[in-house]
Write a structure and sequence with these properties.
- The protein is an alpha/beta fold.
- About 30% of the residues lie in helices and about 20% in strands.
- A hairpin with a 4-residue loop joins strand 14 (about 290) and strand 15.
């Protein structure tokens, strides 16, 4: 005789899930047909490109805009960064620029109606030498003059904020002090991309994934095929057909120089891989973001308990995004010099992204010698921090056909005029 089988029991939540499981979730944004003409074409579906499109629509009512990306939205640096945000840079131009971006990040969840998981946990840049400590004091004074909450703190205060750090004087790289920036923190990079994409789509912006730009269409230039100085953009050629547009914006980060060359524009940019890694999740113990420029390492802990590590860019310029054992060994060694207690943690995975580096470690923004061809590139290792303000200011630049004050210092012509914006002292590691 068979055993009696109890009747199945379901919770209300379980029944609801069973019903939803058989239905398709609605798409977050449309998949529109590619039109033959737009008012603006934005190349690059990362945070910079999407933010530019969103602010064109929301702030200036320019909605006939296409964002094209050869892969999927957020597939480049926007989905490969370590999600750190701050505004404690070295130059007055940089500080004002990034502080506006931090303001936009603070209100983003409300503005875009999506939880971007912003966590204001404080950002601490360690100094291991007298010269590094002088630089920290320099940055702190520049920050204070710009109204930024930033100060140099001593080892005893560092230990209170981050007990896991080894602040004893007998280490190989003793910690002499740190630049502490309370408003700094982390934010969920994927949520930022999705938020801008959904919001731009709601305004009528067309988002085209798997749409690779093969050429920039120009006429009237001094170079071959009507390209270069004196020329004018007429559109782009993609793997899905030509798109006519009087304005084309290059927001392609590591591929910036490649795209610009299609319009006959040379950029002072080299592309370097930047590697990062993450550990297994553990109980939260690291409340702040830790950066060491001397050791070329930075670390923060996610809301899931993972430790996210990174270092400086790879020394040789290339487009290779494979992880290397050399990076892992060097990274682990430097992290353990800061926090020996992590020696038993397991490293789970590593990855790389491409960084577009300029000689002065500041971006290139605004018009180029080719009329209608604009750039928002040269971000190196800190493009994610600048995404919101870059989009806002580039949108204003396009709508008003003039340079906003915040991005005026970052024009391409500064490299020939000699008016560089030297940001290396605050961005050698980039976080």
């Amino acid at each position: 005789m068979g055993k009696h089988k109890s009747p199945a029991r379901y919770s209300a939540a379980g029944l609801a899930w069973r019903g939803l499981r058989n239905k398709s979730w609605p798409r977050v944004w449309r998949e529109p047909e590619l039109k033959s003409a737009y008012d603006v074409v934005v190349i690059g579906g990362g945070i910079h490109g999407l933010a530019t499109a969103y602010y064109l629509a929301s702030n200036h009512a320019i909605t006939n805009v296409a964002v094209v990306d050869k892969a999927y939205l957020g597939s480049g640096g926007s989905g490969r960064n370590t999600a750190i945000v701050r505004s404690n840079y070295l130059t007055p131009e940089g500080v004002a620029f990034y502080d506006r971006s931090l303001d936009l990040y603070n209100t983003m969840s409300t503005d875009l109606n999506i939880n971007v998981m912003f966590s204001e946990r404080g950002h601490m840049t360690l100094a291991h030498t007298d010269s590094a400590l002088r630089t920290m004091n320099w940055r702190a004074e520049v920050n204070k003059l710009q109204g930024i909450d930033s100060s140099v703190i001593a080892p005893d205060e560092i230990k209170k904020l981050s007990p896991s750090l080894d602040t004893s004087p007998n280490t190989r790289y003793p910690i002499l002090g740190a630049l502490y920036h309370p408003p700094g923190g982390t934010i969920r990079h994927d949520a930022v991309v999705w938020g801008y994409a959904r919001a731009a789509d709601a305004y009528g912006v067309d988002l085209h994934q798997k749409t690779e730009v093969l050429d920039i269409l120009c006429e009237g230039g001094a170079g071959p095929n009507g390209k270069g100085a004196g020329g004018k953009v007429t559109g782009v050629r993609t793997n899905r057909g030509d798109i006519h547009a009087p304005v084309v914006v290059n927001c392609t980060a590591g591929w910036a120089s490649t795209i610009a060359s299609m319009a006959g524009v040379r950029l002072p940019i080299t592309t370097h891989p930047l590697q990062a890694a993450v550990t297994e999740p553990v109980k939260t113990f690291l409340p702040t973001v830790i950066v060491s420029g001397s050791l070329h390492v930075y670390v923060s802990q996610t809301d899931r308990g993972e430790l996210v590590f990174g270092a400086s860019v790879d020394p040789v310029a290339n487009y290779d995004m494979k992880g290397t054992l050399e990076f892992t060994e060097e990274l682990a060694g430097h992290v353990l010099e800061l926090m020996p207690g992590l020696s038993k943690m397991r490293l789970m995975r590593q990855w790389a992204g491409l960084c577009d580096m300029t000689p002065d470690y500041s971006p290139v923004m605004g018009p180029t010698p080719v009329d209608g061809f604009l750039v928002d590139v040269g971000w190196g290792t800190y493009g994610f921090k600048a995404g919101p303000v870059s989009g806002e200011q580039m949108a204003a630049c396009i709508a008003h056909e003039s340079m906003p004050d915040l991005i005026a210092p970052f024009v391409l012509s500064r490299f020939t005029d000699g008016t560089l914006v030297g940001e290396k002292g605050a961005a050698a590691v980039g976080h």
